[in-house]
Amino acid sequence: MHKEMKAFFVSVMLLLLVLTGCAGNDSAAPDSSGSDSSGSESNEPADPFGAYEEPITIKIGQELDPSDTSLPAEDSPLDNQFTRSVKENLNIDVEHYFTASPANYDQKVSLAIASNDLPDAMIVGPVELRQMYEAGQLEDLTQVYENYASPAIKRIIEGTNGIALESATFDGKIMAIPNVQLQADGVHLLWIRQDWLDKVGLEAPKTVDELKAVAKAFVEEDPDGNGQADTIGLAGPDTSNKLYATFLESTNNLYGFDGIFSAFGAYPGFWVEGEGGDPVYGSTLPETKEALSALRDMYAEGLIDREMAVREDSDQSVISGQTGMFFAPWWMGYGPLADAITQNPDANWQAYALPLNADGEYTPHLSTPTSNYVVVKKGYEHPEAAMKILNNLLDNESTFSPDKGGPGYYPLRLVFAPSDETEFTVKALREVMAGTKTPEDFKDMPEYKLLVSDVETVKTVKKEPYDDLNIEHWDPQADMGVWTRMYSLLVGGSPLVDTEINGVYSELYSQTKTMEQRWVNLKKLEDETFLKIIMGTEPLDSFDTFVEDWKSQGGEQITGEVADITSE
Amino acid sequence: MYNKGFAKHYYLMLLPGLIWLFIFSIVPMFGIVIAFQNYNPVQGILGSEFVGLDTFEYMFSLNDTASIFMNTISIAVMKIIGNLVIPLIFALMLNELKHMIIKRSIQTIVYLPHFLSWVILGGIILDIFSFQGPINQILGFFGIDAILFFGRADLFPFLVVGSDIWKEFGFNTIIYLAALTGINPALYEAASIDGASRSRMLWHVTLPGIRTTVVLLSVLGLGNVLNAGFDQIFNLYNPLVYSTGDIIDTWVYRAGLLNMQYELATAVGLLKSVAGFILISVSYFLAYRLTNYRIF
Q1: First vs last C-alpha separation in chain B
Q2: Nearest CA in chain A to B146
Q3: pLDDT digits (tens, 9 = 90+) for A321-373
Q4: How many CB pairs under 8 A join A and B?
Q5: CB contact under 8 A, B242 and A553
Q6: Does the residue B201 lie in any domain?
Q7: How far apart are CA A553 and CA A521, in angstroms?
Q8: pTM, whole model, 2 decimals?
Q9: Within a domain: residue B154?
Q10: Is the backbone of residue A270 left (phi > 0), alpha (psi -120 to 50) or beta?
Q11: How far apart (Å, rounded) are the C-alpha atoms in residues A323 and A340?
């Protein structure tokens, strides 16, 4: 009895807190874009954009790419347009607790968790998030989210039908701030050297068979004209990439074979609906074996990069002009293509929503809306500082110049994007270029934070005719930063707008209990078997052994858990 | 030669080493407890829940366990033998060379790779054996199809052992050369007076003269092989060669640090101690049998 009273009292208190927090927000910041934020209304703690009166310090773990040379010479990773914005608007000093290159960041995070030697805040993935929650290392951010998340961020996070927030909620408490990423990041398009296609006299391949024919022509007919047999038909994953995106990492897989698998109706790494309606693991289904068989043939014929899986960095083969095709998301202008075009102005990379399946449909796998989280160390004095830094990012993102440092330098940067941002922006750009709308028509859309600058700058790099996207109708030298974004949007985003996408979602995008112990080994078994099948060092039928091993080494149990979760 | 009072100094000199050993090798051994726990980094070793032998049961149900254990032993043994025989032969050949300048230059050139880290050498070796690299160019000259050397699980252990020998043989050679200069020249004179040929002198004077050095190096090498494989293999391997190239250290690194399976990584790490214990026991036994070399 006593206990129940106490629980009731606490929950009423919580409810009150939450309600007042929400109400305070709504009245304080009706318009997030116009918030000139030095706490002018009042010094209520719940001001998402308010600056601290005394400077506070936040020590973060940050991923820094040592090959990123985008910062101006006078700036440093701790003193640049992004950190200055955080300091000026919020009076927060950002310090590094650790930094790591992209290749080593996950390892640093794991090490920090294992040794319980944590920064005040950092970005983690879903697996680390659960690990940290169970280890009791996280500050409860329920209040922080309710009171300090800016209305725009709340709209974006809640626009995922609760999926994003749910994935960061444990036992009813919000333990991390989830990102919301573009739907477009999960669609792995086929990128082709159009100039090579023209040279060998072929069209963009509609089916897997046509794709093989193109790859064959690219390998055998010396499309780069250097007289050597050194061209690669289809690039393959390098040592740090995956054969396909999975339910735990469902976006931004570079150089995988996602497109080929989905053309066979195979969704390895995804939980798909089986015959009886229960979830089954796509990697164990016959369609996957069929797709592996096709890839195996392609590899044996030399159509796929023969050094895949051993290569350190597949970017290099694209930049140096050896590669004719690869699978990757829409943003390749931000990826290797900017360097490729600098090396060779004729490299005319175009993107297609291809290949199609046997019924002529495009059926890629689709991603979860959230994959990264900002977590705050238990006991950090100002947990809301992390939230404020994120508010500031969304509020000011369009004012940052790509010439003065890449977005990766923003501390604790999470992507907050309405899931259709790419597609929406492409349509807007087209209307502006066609003259049916003017940049002024897009002023009032704070969630699409780059939209205004996009529609204003597109014509600096895109030459007429505006609907011809071949590289000769671009002017990258006019402004490389703008070109990067516009080429990604118009070339990479257009197929997403113009194609009917019959995508497939995974039934689950998070870990179950048994996965914590068993998944690493099961995934290793899967990765090795598939890689060996494709590269011809093991027979195709080792797939059947894999399926049996997978089931007996915990897969069966995990499938049951997934069914329990999805049937809830 | 020495009495009891003299020996005390030796024991005193041993003390810093023993303290070092205690702090860095004995104390961390308590971490083995993690293998029997459901380890939680916040609660630490003292606070985590005990689960008994669960982790070990799971470990032995994995296909990996047997293969990484065997890989570790086989690569270690091959390295020990290679690192013993090749430098020895090379040192003996160099010793026969009478032209001092040539001898010194060869000596200098072959021991240079010893000073490069595996991060650098790994990159160089991967390039040399890549499709466009010189090895495949030479093979192509003889009409042999290019081979993806570092994608071949059957070749990987030999590439690892070969490259390790290539890196270290120059350095080991110098140690042997030093031992060779320590042989009393009078022995050679006596042998030649007795009418021994050069090959006879090699067999009956040179080899017995450096026998203790050979044994000492091999015993010392054993302790290091299980540790020193990590840098090299980590910089050379990829998923295609895990089946034959994954050793205990690399596996523990992936399981423990990358995948946060602390209990499992610790349990497998115990295997490494077992492997090390076996190797050292065997070599100590052999050293005692072959050369009557013993520590205690």
Answers
A1: 18
A2: A306
A3: 999 999 999 999 988 998 999 999 999 999 999 999 999 999 999 998 888 99
A4: 83
A5: no
A6: yes
A7: 9
A8: 0.80
A9: yes
A10: beta
A11: 11
